[in-house]
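Hi support team,

I've been running sequence recovery on a batch of backbones for a student project. Most finish fine, but this one hangs at about 90% for roughly twenty minutes before it completes. I'm not sure whether the input is malformed or the queue is just slow. I've pasted the structure tokens below so you can try to reproduce it. Let me know if you need the job ID as well.

Thanks,
M.K.
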């Protein structure tokens, strides 16, 4: 069953989304050489507290931190700690969320630590981020869930291949419905699977966290002995981008983007839904 939200509920989710956007701003500034991933977690914890929000990551299934910090070959679910010191040339994916009045937001981005990254790493992050936007652009009334999966996969497959061979679209993890829980039905694959149907129809009030994960090699992953950290099986580095998105009568609203997705969607020829947080 998919939870369909009213405009008032979407406005609440927008509040949670703006807290997530603020965490992104603060952690992006703090992700510099010499910082530990624990430092970033503390930055995030403070932003959530300053907004009077709650963390949906801390304690989730026993997860011990406020954000996931996934460095280089770590795909997702890296645990912040004092031992992981960011170095010039690293890439880090930071995934985090917040709850406001029971409504959840969830979003992730990949950042470059320091400078001098190889062009293929810059391109990996660009392709992953743009594939997320292609998925967001497919959030149209009357489309099916599979149209979002197809848009993400098609975008990635149409890009020039990296020197490492080809992009690996991570298969073991994907996007999800979001609302009164962080993870709700339906599960969203980042590729088209013949084993799955077309999925539910997208209608106003449908909310999805869209989150492609892409590696410079394999689509396959394994989980380390801490039961959380997910790495690529071939050790290639990976990128993760995510936004929580609500479909409304007036189109998509990117809940976790400061501008509601307005600028980026305009580039793609789509008008973002009006932002309830900026209404008088
Ligand atoms: Mg997330
Ligand atoms: Mg998510």
């Amino acid at each position: 069953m998919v939870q369909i939200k009213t405009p008032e509920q979407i406005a609440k989710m927008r509040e949670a989304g703006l807290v997530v956007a603020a965490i992104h701003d603060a952690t992006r500034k703090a992700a510099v050489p010499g910082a530990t991933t624990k430092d970033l977690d503390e930055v995030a914890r403070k932003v959530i507290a300053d907004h009077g929000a709650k963390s949906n990551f801390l304690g989730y299934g026993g997860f011990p931190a406020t954000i996931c910090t996934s460095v280089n070959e770590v795909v997702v679910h890296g645990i912040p700690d004092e031992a992981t010191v960011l170095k010039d040339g690293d890439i880090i994916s930071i995934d985090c969320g917040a709850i406001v009045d029971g409504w959840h937001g969830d979003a992730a981005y990949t950042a470059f630590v320091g400078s001098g990254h190889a062009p293929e790493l810059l391109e990996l992050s660009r392709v992953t981020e743009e594939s997320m936007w292609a998925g967001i652009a497919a959030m149209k009334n009357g489309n099916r869930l599979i149209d979002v999966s197809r848009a993400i996969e098609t975008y990635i497959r149409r890009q020039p291949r990296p020197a490492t061979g080809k992009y690996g679209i991570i298969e073991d993890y994907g996007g999800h419905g979001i609302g009164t829980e962080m993870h709700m039905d339906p599960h969203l694959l980042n590729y088209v699977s013949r084993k799955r149907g077309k999925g539910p129809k997208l209608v106003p009030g449908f909310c999805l966290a869209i989150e492609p994960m892409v590696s410079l090699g394999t689509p396959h992953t394994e989980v380390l002995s801490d039961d959380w950290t997910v790495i690529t099986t071939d050790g290639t580095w990976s990128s993760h981008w995510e936004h929580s998105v609500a479909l409304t009568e007036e189109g998509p609203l990117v809940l976790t983007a400061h501008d509601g997705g307005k600028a980026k969607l305009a580039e793609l020829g789509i008008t973002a839904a009006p932002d309830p947080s900026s209404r008088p």
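--
Follow-up from support: It reproduced on our side and the slowdown came from queue contention, not your input. The chain has a mean pLDDT of 97. No action needed from you.
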